[in-house]
Amino acid sequence: MSSMTAHNTETVTQSSEDHTLSLxxxxxxxxDLLEAQLIGNPDLPLSNIGSIEDGCPETLTFIRSQNxxxxxxxxxxxxxxxxxxIDVPGHDPDTRALIIVxxxxxxxxxxxxxxxxxxxxxxxxxxxxxxxxxxxxxDPTAAIGPxxxxxxxxxxxxxxxxxxxxxxxxxxxxxQQTILEPGVVIEDRCSVGDRCHFGANCVVGTDGFGFLxxxxxxxxxxxxxxxxxxxxxxxxxxxxxxxxxxxxxxxTIGDRTKIDNQxxxxxxxxxxxxxxxxxxxxxxxxxxxxxxxxxxxAVVLNDQSSVGKHARVAGGxxxxxxxxxxxxxxxxxxxxxxxxxxxYASFRELSTFSRQVEKRLKKLEAAQQHNNQHDx
Length: 376
Prior knowledge:
About 20% of the residues lie in helices and about 25% in strands. Helix 1 (about 5-15) runs parallel beside helix 4. Strands 8-11-14-17-20-25-28-31-34-37-40-41 form a twelve-stranded mixed β-sheet, with helices on one face. Strands 9-12-15-18-21-26-29-32-35-38 form a ten-stranded parallel β-sheet, with no helix packed on it.
């Protein structure tokens, strides 16, 4: 048995291209492609991939933890990818099969990549309906879909793909192999690195929210946002993400960072490398997030707050100040997760505690009145 190394990843990907790895497939054939150990019936057919709770007899599922393994006896699935070291109870090798891999999650990702039908992309070249400024530079291998608009002196890298109705502003640049889904807008002077993937209707480089507050003598005054946005390589953003340009300097997003749907990144934010930001999170102005941080869904990061390297913020938290390196914060306002959980536990008992206090106060008041009458 051997783990799925980087070499194995290339093998599986290549297999998908020459149809060696396709569904349906026998359990033993899949184990051979993964260079993994099979425990059980080698002839079981696999026609789809699904969860251990909802799968059918021909579903390939996965067991990533001991908790998942407890569902195996009741699962209708007959074949599972299993991470090394996990004990799977109730396994019948005559009627079912386990494929033992180093990491079931990674193995599953590799299989999904191999069998992924992928979206249809426009061919290399420029669609006749696209509007291209004559000073723009477009690599001949790039694909420019219907209705796209590319501004003056913009540049589009090799094998980049612009799906329908993408807008690229003047002096903006798009790196090699970057894919922009329908409706994406990259505003003037902003740059996007290589191999990025932005979901539909993302907007990069819109004005930051900058105003001098109104007074009794005048209305609010807009502060010009003359900075840019710089996005590194291998960055992915879901649908409807908004990244504001800086007032001065640059709003930056580091290499390999992944941002979920409907996230707002305000002006002058600095996001490090390999960071994960879940959906509906809001970053205020000049927020700093370190490398390898993980931000849960619907988090609010206050203006000029910071999240350190390898730090984590639980979903729904509101960070007013800073999260130190490596720490996990939760709650409103954000605080160390252990403290937040203890506070939450206390809050759940607050109504019961209040009723108990009220009853005891009434008893004390009654006792006091009785003593006063007795003394009189």
